[in-house]
Each structure stands twice: as C-alpha cells, then as structure tokens.
Amino acid sequence: MKKAMTMALTATLATSAITAPLAFAQDKKEPTSNEVQEEVATNFIQLTGKLGKIEKHDNGTLYTTIEQGDETFSLYIEESTLVLDNQGKEVELKEGAKFTAFVDKNKPMLAIYPPRYTPEVLVVETADFGIVEVGTFDKDFVNKENTLKLNLSDETVVTNVAGDKLSHDAIVGKEAIVLYGPATFSIPAQTNPYRVIVFDGVQDEVEEITPIEEVVDFQQFEGEITDVVTRENGSQLLVIEDKEQPFALTVGKETIVLDNTGKKIELQKGMKFTAYVDVMKPAILIYPPQYAPEVIIVQTEGAGVAEFGTFDLNLLNHENTLKLTIDDKTEITGLTGDKLAKDDLINAQALVFYTVATASIPAQTTPTKVIVFGEATFPEAELAVENSKQVDGVTMVPLRALAEELGYKVTSTGKGAILTKGNASYEITRRQKQYTHNRAIKAFDVAPTLLEENTTYVPQTFIESLRGE
User: Fold this and answer.
1) CA 362 to CA 70: how far, in whole Å?
2) Is 389-466 a CATH 3.30.1360.120 domain?
3) Does the pTM of the predicted model rise above 0.85?
4) pLDDT tens, 127-144?
C-alpha cells in the first residue's frame, strides 16, 4: 500500500521518582479507610541516592554524578539551591552522603545522557532524627491525604525555595516540603515541623518553546512487491499491485537496497519494504505512478530497526523520540556511499539503523549504520531585525530566533536559557549581567531581559560574537 508516513518511536518513561514520604527515623501511621484514596498530583520529582565526586565549576555551581546500578544521573547544584539536613538546617555537601533531591518536574531540562537535574531543594540524611514529606495543606494546615497536620509556632521556619521567609498563611493551598521530627499517632498525625518550604512553581516567566516544524524532503512509501521485472539496461521495475493505489518503483545501480539491519539484499517477489523518494525529483506522468527511490529498506525477521529523522546538535531527533550515541563502530555514509563524520548528520535528514534502544523518553541507542540524506545546514543570521530595542543605549535583539539561525540549540531554563553548538556552551540568566561560556564567566553590558512576552532580549554584540564559534 502506498503511504506517505512519518515514523515515530514509542517508548515508556522510566523516572526515578519517589512519591512516598522520606523517613530517616520512624514511619508515620497511615489512615485506614475502605475508600479509594485520591491520587494527589505533585510538582516534584524526588531523586534519591548517594552523592558521587563533587566538582566545583568556575561559576560556583556544584556538579555530581550518581550511579545506582544501571541507572545514572547527574545533579547540577546552583548557589540558589537549598541544601539542608533532615532537620532543616543548612549543611555542606560531602561525597558519599545519602540525599533526596526535589526537582521541579515542569522545569525544562537538557536533552542529554545521562540526564542532568537541577534541584530546588536537596535534603541530606544525617544521624539526627527527621522526616521529609511533600504535601499540599489547607487553611487548617492539614494535607490533602489527611495524614499530617502542622502545628506551627514562632520557631517554625517557613520559606520559599529561594530561602525568603514567609508567613504561616503562605502555606495554605500551596505544595510544600515539610521537615519534621516527632509526630502523634493520631489521624491525621500532628507535628511541629522544623521547617516548611513553600513551592510556588517557576518564579520567573518561562520562555515559550516553539516546536520545530519538520520539513520533509523525502516521501515514504511502503508495500509488498507483487513482481520484479528486470529491464535490458539492468535496472529493475518493482510492481506493487495495491487495490486502491497501485504504483511501481524503478531501481537502478545508484539505488541503495538494504534490509532492516543495514545489510545489502536482493529484491524478490513478496518482500515487504519501505521506499524513500526525493519529493523534488520529477516523476513520470503515467498510471500507475512510477517513482525512483533513493533508498529501499526490506523488512526481514532479523533484529533491527530503520528509522528516518532529522537530528539536532545533540543528535536528538525533532520528535524527541530518539537520541543517538555515535561510536567508532557506527558507519556513517551519504547516499552515494561516501564516508561522513558525525557532524555531517546534524540538521540533515538521515536514516538510522539500530537494534537495541533504552526504554526512556527519548529512547537512546548506538546505531550500527547511518545514511545521511543531504548536507547539514547552518544558515547565516540576518542581524538587522526590525524589532530590536534600545536599553540604556545598548541595542537589544531576540535571543532564541537569532541563536537558532546560527545553528545553536536553545533550551529554556525558566530563568534564562542554555545555548549549545558543538563544543560551545552558554548559560544565560535574565536580569543578570554575568553569563558563562564553556564554564568561563563573562559579562553583558546590559543584562538579558524580557522585553516582549515570552521573548528574551540580549545585546546585539552577543549575537555577533556567536558567529565566531
């Protein structure tokens, strides 16, 4: 059957989220009820583990990698991150310490492997008695599950995730992290907490991330070969007798014919296939239509997947379903068979062959073979933009639009953005003059700011400096 189709990979999200309370010394009595308990939504991902080696970056942030069996992730701990022990006291991080990290699940994160999280709060386990629990509390300071009631006193420290002190009323209706000690065995349990951290969501306005509109230059056809006709010039004509939309394929010496594992194969009657045809190539005006594909992939019983897509600077496809890890064994070629480098598939449409992928979102795989359908494109940016603005005598221009035209991947952090291209990396925070370039601290003349809704503006001189990367 003739089909123009977009291939997608479905995966299951595997998340290291722990939804139960973290108790370092005792368990709290839970209510007994025959009613089904309502599942309470939370804004936090809770990650637990032991801290690995702690590295300090030039900008003051701490970086550590946690390995738990087959699962690996990293924590990026900023100066603004609340680092507390299980009694709510500020504490320094040490290698090997057990922890629970609370990460805003609505915060955009870099699409890298292993995943890197920037927690709002990090609680370190100590020998002191203490329990950590997340909940949303009503006007009587009882959580939605009716398992915990807070008895607040003048000694109870109530803050937001930035560490600013708040009134007790600020807890009402908000999700909060509660650190407490002894509790009654009543229903709900009652306690005088050491500290309450109120979560208000991302404090700054989050820049809207516009999905990339995929422009496909190659149409995909699939079907089953009804007959193979060999012509006098050595080319083959594949007949596909679909009842609704019959068509034929012309196969010449330049046509790439592979099975789903990436191996060469001879075409035979009865084979099921997917063909990739350049939409700009002229077609013969006959019926049934006849196409000359660049690549034909034959489906066999061999273990292997062939997937078509366009991959960004991080080798992540535009659908966010597949991320590539290229090693020395990965064969990368063009349509003519010439060998290419990893950078040649960036922003170019490519056909990827692989056998094993992770069950994460996006799935991650090391492909055996990649065929690049064209050249990588990095268009030049036109800096003479009509909506430039003046701030303190400095020309300010939209960050995302111009950086992406220069080939940078722009990832919103909620408070600013991270720009990546090849080995270059920039991290920018709105209303702060300082920014990092490959971990080195530099400064703007005027701090980046939101001059339009969901649009961060930076000095034009910064965009001009990106051309040199």
Assistant:
1) 17
2) no
3) no
4) 888 888 888 999 999 999
Query: Whose CA is closest to 178, among 142, 140, 126?
Result: 142
How is the chain split into domains, by residue range?
22-199, 218-298, 305-372, 389-466
pLDDT in tens, 179-207: 998 989 999 999 999 999 998 754 344 34
Domain 218-298 and domain 389-466, same fold? Reply is no
Give buried/exposed letters for 288-301 (b at 16+ CB in 10 A, else e).
eebbbbbbbbbeee
- State the fold for domain 218-298: OB fold (Dihydrolipoamide Acetyltransferase, E2P) (2.40.50)
Give me the CATH code for the 22-199 domain, please.
2.40.50.140
Is residue 329 packed enough to be buried (19+ CB in 10 Å), middle (13-18) or exposed (0-12)?
Answer: exposed
Q: Quote the CA–CA distance of 111 and 362 in Å, as a whole number.
A: 8
